[in-house]
Amino acid sequence: MILRENQDRQHLIWETALDRLELDVMRAEQMTARPTTFELEPWDEPHLDGPIPDDLVERALALRARQQEVRAELVDALGALGRQHAFADRVDRATARVAQAVYVDVTA
User: Fold this and answer.
1) Closest CA to 46 of 92, 69, 68, 13
2) What are 32-41's pLDDT values in tens digits?
3) Would you say residue 50 lies in a domain?
4) Which of 1, 29, 51, 96 is the most exposed place for a label (fewest CB within 10 A)?
5) 13 part of a folded domain
6) What is the pTM of this model?
């Protein structure tokens, strides 16, 4: 009886950990679709004893695949953002108004 209760508790802990990870992946997927609507929240590593229950392995593997996909999308998005930022900096430098007075000798 006690062994079964412990197994049930461990199963629930693993399910909860996977639920939290899945929510994080969903938020990251939404961020790639709408980059301006994302807020970071702290993440605490769950304390998981023992191996993942057999019936949760497939879900965990599918979740890992989604994490890898969204990671690749975020890397691409960050690269594009960096290139846009660098271009905007170059445009600002090229079109910046001079803060000091400039005199041109038209008699020369």
Assistant:
1) 13
2) 877 666 666 7
3) yes
4) 1
5) yes
6) 0.67
